[in-house]
């Protein structure tokens, strides 16, 4: 009898453990409420405002509608920025590595050069690469990235790139005038674990090995001899 009573008590314990407290369950009502889109909330508020409402309630609902529309605009803007970032972050990261590598190489050459003409030539090239780095670092968030290395002699691309350079410089001047730092959009922080991405695994080793060829490629673009 004692043995049977022990077995029965174990079964009862299992049943109790199998019961999940109500507090741990998913609040379906809350989940449903949270899932209501801003678009639906806006429509619902607009329908409500068509009714004959007391002044205070109407003012409250109008303010609510305005806030919802601002949230919708912000959400849409963030979605656009994220889409552009995801599309362009690889090429921006890759080009920044190239430009920074060339800047380091030119700075090294500048330290060892003795001839004035050669030193001036390197200084000019260094200035251009620094402008390229500025272009990558502060490229406008809402614009589709225009590569520095693709479409070299295409007049439309060159014109677009020059306009973007001017826009970036204007943004930097405006930020400096307001006492703020312009947010970087081409920083390394924007890209996480990119070294493991297929984009870099294909040709990344040759990129390092052929770094010296960059001098030749760039000299053509900048008109150097």
UniProtKB/TrEMBL annotation:
GO terms for cellular component: nucleolus; preribosome, small subunit precursor. Keywords: Coiled coil, Nucleus, rRNA processing. GO terms for biological process: maturation of SSU-rRNA from tricistronic rRNA transcript (SSU-rRNA, 5.8S rRNA, LSU-rRNA). Residues 216-225 have a biased composition (Basic and acidic residues). Residues 184-199 have a biased composition (Acidic residues). InterPro entries: Efg1, EFG1_rRNA-proc. Transmembrane segments: none annotated. It is found in: Nucleus, Nucleolus. Residues 1-38, 179-225 are annotated as: Disordered. The keyword Cytoplasm does not apply. Belongs to the EFG1 family. This is rRNA-processing protein EFG1. It comes from Dendrobium catenatum.
